Amino acid sequence: MPPCGAGVDRSSHSMDKSITLPPDEIFRNLENAKRFAIDIGGSLTKLAYYSTVQHKVAKVRSFDHTAKETEGDPLYEISMQEEVSARLHFIKFENAYIETCLDFIKDHLVNTDTKVIKATGGGAHKFKDLIEKKLKLRVDKEDEMTCLIKGCNFVLRNITHEAFVYAKHADSEFRFQNTHPDIFPYLLINIGSGVSIFKVESEDTFERVGGSSIGGGTFWGLGALLTKTKRFDELLQLASKGQHTNVDMLVKDIYGGSYGSLGLTGDLIASSFGKSATPDKEFSKEDMAKSLLHMISNDIGQLACLYARLHNLTRVYFGGFFIRGHPVTMHTITYSINFFTKGEVQALFLRHEGYLGTIGAFLKGAEEDSRP
Amino acid sequence: MAAESERVDRSSHSMDKSITLPPNEIFRNLENAKRFAIDIGGSLTKLAYYSTVQHKVAKVRSFDHTAKDTEDDPLYEISMQEEILARLHFIKFENAYIETCLDFIKDHLVNTDTKVIKATGGGAHKFKDLIEKKLKLRVDKEDEMTCLIKGCNFVLRNIPHEAFVYVKHADSEFRFQNTHPDIFPYLLINIGSGVSIIKVESEDTFERVGGSSIGGGTFWGLGALLTKTKRFDELLQLASKGQHTSVDMLVKDIYGGSYGSLGLTGDLIASSFGKSATADKEFSKEDMAKSLLHMISNDIGQLACLYARLHNLTRVYFGGFFIRGHPVTMHTITYSINFFTKGEVQALFLRHEGYLGTIGAFLKGAEEDNPNQYSWGENYAGSSGLMSTSPDLNPMQRARSGTFDMLEMDRLERQLVNLPLLQDPSSYVPDTVDLSEDALAREYWLYCFEEALDGVVKRAVASQPDLPEAAERAEKFRHKYLHKLQTLRHQPFAYGSLTVRSLLDTREHCLNEFNFPDPYSKIKQRENDMALKYFQKAVKSLEELSWEQRQFALVRGLLAGNVFDWGAKAVSDVLESDPEFGFEQAKRQLEERPWLVDAYDQWLERLKGPPHKCALFFVDNSGIDIILGVFPFVRELLCRGTEVVLASNSSPALNDVTNNELQILTERIAAMDSVIRSAVKEDRLTLVQSGSSSPCLDLSRLDKVLAGVVRERHTDLVIIEGMGRAIHTNYYAMLSCESLKMAVIKNSWLADRLGGKLFSVVFKYEVPPDKKHTTLDHVPVTPS
């Protein structure tokens, strides 16, 4: 009965079939690809592979100046050469394209001696047979949370300006953070259908310290019931246009103003959906969606803040499909964290948050390969 | 935008107007009411007032015996006097009745010079004008949270078994907690429309450390939107019938089973309402309501647990209209707390949770009276008890009137504290058997008290031969007590754990309610007179015995004396049919050694050692018991050089000797006996009030003066006598000094339970582990 937080989203909404992916633009350097990893979420598939790229490089070579010194001779010569470099590719596409993509990969996968594809995400077991049939690779499942954390560590360490603070009304909405030399310890709040809260202390030490069943699935599920809108993005659209004060009971609705002795301002939400309990009136979809979004974001914000205080952590990253670049949710989460921690903890988001699982799965595979 | 909380509920659902409140039953003693306080929530109004109640009390007054000593004159005279008692009244009713109630109050408010009514709660400003117009009192608003905390402190301190743990599948759903000597610090989670989390560190120090907007209003609001059901109670009804698994996404719905590496079982909720996102199907109202209830309860549970950990608190109380006695809610909150704290923190609920605000507001207004300086006691006769308004649990009450609830608290004359000699005050449980957990025992005792009711009524009438309306009052008493017994049959937890003690106390409260303050006064008087005549003879025959014979005779005498107890059915039958039933006969009736519980040999060995410094003796009945049983025993202790403190009831209960009576008896005995006389004179024999008016004994609520005397005199022996004090209560009480518990079992059912028979003897002598070596040192070494 109680909450848990699984970082998995899933949906079965039909995709717009008229949009087609340009596969050759996306799956680059497939010929020499090796080490595949795939992370299948509820709506998005993330693929990772490693390949070698032949590059032209300009090389310079010095002439021997000791033998004879002619004034008109250049100092060195330039030549173009071929060089092979290693590159990691990450591709994200909607689940609807998974079959097309697998076909394309199969056709272009020539030089690989790879036998295995690492897979993670809640959809991994659902598409296991399809992948094995199409690619003739054995699907090797990896623990979702381990992949997530591994991927997170990787991007925090290797990508400059990976993390950012979201400030809705600032000149620049995104305030990128400089890479910290020491990324540990940190708290990762993964908001999928539910919420999982991880305390990460080192590369290999992490613990799920908490979770909640009030997550993205709750926004989606309750939102669908309340507004008859089935698509997640549309729900967010509705929310961005709504007024929560029509549905929520504010402090001033009860006390006629602020509750000074407790330091509560009049505009604070006293009770989410508190106004919909008794009046026999209709509430707009937009207002209900907005109220729901605030309710969930505030709740997660408060939990994040409490776990951060309890574990003495100041860096708190947010990820999962509920966040995934949505300005509305980033804003409400940020607001809530600021409120609860009085600015002591900042909500941090990640540019490549959607790739964490597949990066982690890929790294797991790479580690195994390099083992003697 | 963020969360806050308030403890106000509000609703505009129309009431069933055909149900009317019986106002004269509810607003009692209004004539002398003063100091009003009102807490108006969204749906319930709670009113508090303080009034004085005129009570008949039986007073005893000694005659002047020096002038002439006639054989046939009674020792003392009994007179009925009027006494004024202070009582707090609390009434809870639905807002729909507010106007009717205000009218009623206005009409009956005669003798008051009150100008102000203290008000709190979200509805206070809404009804301000109405109240001022109707009552002609100025409404003085008080801060809600302050009132809430003040009220909470008050009930935790003054009402035994106020807090309880809810256990759905246990034999008894309510596990009442003992009053902790120190109630601070604690966390109070108040779930009104929103949630407030308050850390309380002392009477005046509290802080709102957190809160959430996901509270009762969210359940109500979202529930109404999802199910089109507008009433809070109906939503809870729906929830209790639903299956959350059809709406919630569980861990196993995602992973096909548990998520082992994270320790998440398959049945955990991964995402509340997660299944309703995409499934194109209709969900039942019941299932959605259940899922919503779980979502909210779990969330609050997790927040409570996090704040408790963050502030290092283990006592977490829940209150607010979301809880208010609803079993489904209490269950889900409890489950959630257990889950998140792995059992380290227990969710505690309060019996009078709905009254906290109004109690606090009242106390604010009454600060000049220093209500916190007194001890208060719940009056069982005037209080409805837990769940009186739950239609599920109490259909009887529901049909009788609208949903209203009352709480009355008497200001006790004496301030009550723990016996300083309790080994561990926080784990002390007075009662031996919890009848709410023991269905068989409950059945028996409820039956037993119902059976005995005729006799009690008869005796009550007989005690007031000069008052013609006594019979009518006695019938009212019968009706009231019978109703209480019926209520307790349905709700054994109404006044905390149901115990023989609470049944006895409820009867005493009901008798007092109808001005039968002391139905046994005349019987006690007769027995005391009769027993006194034999005192010197009894002492003389004891003195003729050898030391060892005498010690045994004293114990047997004390036990035989204790057979004389009108409270026990078996004995009152014999006494009434055969008044000649004498002391000697009682001795013959006693069980031969070895007794059912027999530590006499150890006691005798102890007596061969050095005397005790001071013995505290909780005495039982009037007459033969106190005069021919206790006094010779006390006399022997005094002769050994042990000081004695005799603790007797402050006011009457059954035929138990009261402090006033004991004073007169002691005077008389002192006049006859030089040992007692010099002991009284030299202050080696002291009489104290126990602070109690119960046939049982709660060692955690004793007169402060008694506690002081016990401490000053370095008391090292506690003697508890009689079935009520040593068996129904305190049988398992652990004391930090030596103790002697003596009783004769005068109830065949109880005898059966304990493996004995009628008139079996319990003689329990206990030495706490850390005192054992010292006493052994003094035991004379005899060559083997």
Automatic annotation (TrEMBL), chain A:
Q: Which UniProt keywords apply?
A: ATP-binding, Coenzyme A biosynthesis, Nucleotide-binding
Gene Ontology annotations for the cellular component aspect, listed alphabetically: cytosol; nucleus
Question: What's a single GO BP term from this record?
Answer: coenzyme A biosynthetic process
UniProt-listed CDD domains: ASKHA_NBD_PanK-II_Pank4 (cd24123)
What InterPro entries does the database record attribute to this sequence? ATPase_NBD (IPR043129), Type_II_PanK (IPR004567)
GO MF term (any one): pantothenate kinase activity
The annotated region (Disordered) lies at: 1-20
Superkingdom as given in the UniProt entry: Eukaryota
- NCBIfam families (UniProt xref): panK_eukar (TIGR00555)
Q: What is this protein called?
A: Pantothenate kinase 4 (inactive)
Q: Which organism is it from?
A: Hucho hucho (huchen)
UniProtKB/TrEMBL annotation, chain B:
- Name all Damage-control phosphatase ARMT1-like metal-binding domain ranges: 451-757
Record localization = Cytoplasm
Q: Which SUPFAM superfamilies does this chain map to?
A: Actin-like ATPase domain, AF1104-like
Query: Is Metal-binding tagged as a keyword?
Result: yes
* Recorded GO MF terms: ATP binding; hydrolase activity; metal ion binding; pantothenate kinase activity
Gene Ontology cellular-component terms listed: cytosol; nucleus
Alphabetically ordered keywords of this record: Acetylation, ATP-binding, Coenzyme A biosynthesis, Cytoplasm, Hydrolase, Manganese, Metal-binding, Nickel, Nitration, Nucleotide-binding, Phosphoprotein
Q: Which domain of life is it from?
A: Eukaryota
Q: What InterPro entries does this protein's entry cite?
A: ARMT-1-like_metal-bd_sf, ARMT1-like_metal-bd, At2g17340_3_helix_bundle, ATPase_NBD, PanK_long, Type_II_PanK
Q: Name one GO biological process term.
A: coenzyme A biosynthetic process
Catalysed reaction(s)?
Answer: (R)-4'-phosphopantetheine + H2O = (R)-pantetheine + phosphate; (R)-4'-phosphopantetheine sulfonate + H2O = (R)-pantetheine sulfonate + phosphate; (R)-4'-phospho-S-sulfopantetheine + H2O = (R)-S-sulfopantetheine + phosphate
Needs which cofactor?
Ni(2+); Mn(2+)
Signal peptide range = none
Q: Which Pfam families match?
A: ARMT1-like_dom, Fumble
What does the UniProt function comment say about this protein?
Phosphatase which shows a preference for 4'-phosphopantetheine and its oxidatively damaged forms (sulfonate or S-sulfonate), providing strong indirect evidence that the phosphatase activity pre-empts damage in the coenzyme A (CoA) pathway. Hydrolyzing excess 4'-phosphopantetheine could constitute a directed overflow mechanism to prevent its oxidation to the S-sulfonate, sulfonate, or other forms. Hydrolyzing 4'-phosphopantetheine sulfonate or S-sulfonate would forestall their conversion to inactive forms of CoA and acyl carrier protein.
Q: How does it assemble?
A: Homodimer. Interacts with PKM.
> Which family, according to UniProt?
In the N-terminal section; belongs to the type II pantothenate kinase family. Belongs to the type II pantothenate kinase family.
The record ties this protein, via NCBIfam families, to: panK_eukar
Return the protein name: 4'-phosphopantetheine phosphatase
What organism does the record attribute this protein to?
Hucho hucho (huchen)
